[in-house]
């Protein structure tokens, strides 16, 4: 049974998609896990990046078709044995209209993705969901479908605004829809070139989220990570190597935490 993880923060451009894609990538290629990456963002950035990186030039499948047909199986794109994706296109922006027109109960609207994922969860070890930076039907559906959330902390901002809003939203979803989702960790990400970890920000995050929840690994700005948007993910030289290693470390730390949580009883641990 897959462990489903959503990468969250309600700010644009903080590295959510990069983290979803790279965590999926390292789990599949470096840790031999079966991974499904679900693109819940009509921008389709995760789909484009991962397709480009595996040599897929044309994507015909669409998550929206899966929503309309009531089954996601047909829109899974198997990129490699271990790495599959469900891609999104801009037309998926009409998801809210579709849900309001076709699904009567509010609870059924927010749990639509959850129900669609249920029949395929056994096929994977991990399912990652990439979401847009908005409080919307997209994020609601992702949250209800996920077991864990990895919160992105934009580490150069004292306000921690996007991450804090996310925690309030988690509480709202738990109160209103009985969402059962656990924070697996808070990952500091620094996107400014040459940026140092802002000690004050990390301290503030530690106060807010608890020391045990803030990951020890930090994703720093690396030109190579940005370049991969254009070239696709490569593994040819020392810069590639360094960029991969960051996410291998993040994934390993996350696996440790998941193991701890799962042993504590949420689900049976899959090794
Ligand atoms: N560690 C990094 N070093 C350098 N560039 C990065 C890093 N992480 C992400 N980027 C770049 O920053 C930009 C934003 O990243 P990304 O698309 O992952 O953010 P996002 O939070 O998913 O954005 P959105 O809210 O629009 O979905 C992209 O151009 C990406 O390549
Ligand atoms: Mg994104």
UniProtKB/TrEMBL annotation:
Gene3D superfamilies: P-loop containing nucleotide triphosphate hydrolases. InterPro entries: AAA_dom, DNA_Partitioning_ATPase, P-loop_NTPase. It holds the Pfam family AAA_31. Residues 4-182 form the AAA domain. PANTHER family: P-LOOP CONTAINING NUCLEOSIDE TRIPHOSPHATE HYDROLASE, PLASMID PARTITION PROTEIN A. This is ParA family protein.
């Amino acid at each position: 049974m897959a462990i489903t993880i959503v990468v969250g923060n309600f700010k644009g451009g903080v590295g959510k998609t990069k983290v979803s894609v790279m965590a999926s990538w390292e789990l599949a290629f470096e840790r031999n896990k079966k991974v499904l990456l679900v693109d819940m963002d009509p921008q389709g950035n995760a789909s484009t990046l991962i397709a480009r990186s595996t040599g897929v030039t044309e994507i015909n499948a669409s998550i929206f078709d899966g929503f309309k047909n009531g089954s996601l199986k047909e829109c899974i794109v198997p990129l490699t044995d271990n790495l599959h994706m469900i891609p999104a296109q801009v037309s998926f922006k009409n998801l809210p209209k579709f849900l309001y027109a076709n699904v009567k109960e509010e609870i059924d609207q927010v749990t639509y993705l959850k129900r669609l994922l249920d029949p395929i969860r056994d096929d994977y070890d991990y399912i990652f969901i990439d979401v847009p930076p908005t409080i919307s039907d997209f994020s609601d559906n992702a949250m209800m479908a996920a077991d864990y959330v990895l919160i992105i902390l934009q580490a150069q901002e004292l306000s921690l605004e996007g991450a804090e809003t996310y925690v309030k939203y988690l509480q709202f979803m738990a109160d209103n829809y009985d969402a059962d989702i656990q924070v697996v960790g808070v990952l500091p990400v620094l996107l400014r070139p040459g940026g140092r970890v802002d000690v004050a920000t990390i301290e503030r995050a530690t106060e807010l989220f608890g020391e045990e929840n803030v990951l020890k690994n930090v994703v720093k700005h690396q030109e190579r990570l940005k370049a991969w948007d254009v070239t696709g993910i490569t593994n040819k030289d020392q810069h590639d190597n360094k960029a991969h290693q960051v996410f291998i470390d993040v994934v390993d730390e996350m696996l440790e935490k998941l193991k701890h949580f799962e042993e504590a009883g949420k689900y049976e641990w899959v090794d």
